[in-house]
Amino acid sequence: MNNLNLLTIIAEEALAPAIEKEIVEMGAKGFTSSSVSGKGLHELRDNQWEGENIKIETIVSEDICKKILTHLERKYFDRYAMIAFFHPVNVMRTDHFL
Known about the structure:
The chain contains two helices and four strands. By secondary structure, it is α+β, with helices and mostly antiparallel strands. It has a four-stranded antiparallel beta sheet, with helices on one face. It is globular, with a radius of gyration of 14 Å.
């Protein structure tokens, strides 16, 4: 069992293809995406005209996690409704993630 990081990104649905491509290019071996809803500083996003929110999760090493977060901060945070956070996880079958 190894200690890795579960990185969660919640963003506007339209950003999903670009973010998914970029995190793989930066070293993530894969990701899971799902549509989500909720309320935050930018109010409730719950209609088809605005689009949904997407949650992208990936399990990565600390170095890759920091690299992805830095990239997201520079490219997206000032222009889009987005949040990203991580927490340590103990992972079995680490060969799937490293």
